[in-house]
Design goal:
The protein has 264 residues and is α+β, with helices and mostly antiparallel strands. Helices cover 44% and strands 18% of the residues. The protein contains nine helices and eight strands. Helix 1 (18-31) packs across helix 3 (48-60) and helix 5 runs antiparallel to helix 9.
Length: 264
Amino acid sequence: MKVSDAHGVRRIAETSVGVLDRSVAVIDAVQHGARTHAGVVAATGLPRTTAHRLLGSLELHGMVEHIVGWGYRLGPRLLQIAAATLQEPSLRAVAHPVLERLAETTGESAQLYVRSLGGRVCVDGVESSSELRTFVPVGTELPIWVGSAGKVFMAWTGEPARSELVALARALTAATPVEDRLHRQLATVRRQGWASSAGEREDGVGSVSAPVVGHHDELVAVVSISGPTSRVSRIGARRYAPDVTTAAREIEASLGERGPDDFP
């Protein structure tokens, strides 16, 4: 659990391993939008020399990386650890049957996305049986700032990181929302609990997505269906939204009911 003081500085969780506590605090600060050395100091309350030393060590181990002209961000080692975790059966094991039912119910292809360092990555999918269909291969990484699944990830990202993601958005098609229009759509997504997209990432492709939320209100994954905009249009999205949100709730319930020992 993340705790902040009255000035918004995250208090460092204290265990018997102080250097680990401080290192995790630095990673947490970078994850939530602190890009500069000064930003990490402000977010953690650590002395400047301590923050500098920890950032250097974390960069050496690949836990954070420094981009010239941009600042610090989460490093490739964390992505590798996350990818290894996703290979474990828990999330995919409980989600796959739900994706199969979702694809059968809607007649469209169903996908499961998780956040990656560069955007979002498809970790499971079930292809539609329709002759005219869309399909996202497992392992495909897509931008975080475009498409219905991307909008869910952004809508469930706290500030100031959300605004930074919006600032990165660029139009891929004439329908891609950017800047103020994207900000307004994200507010709607968070309010209604699902997102839609029609030709925003690729002309002729529509999608509807909903969040899978964990025990501590953290975003675990995003469930989506995708298909041609002749069927999955912006107006038609409301027809699919109840099935997609129900699928997300089913995955949440299954994750809550089963522990690590329940999986082969």
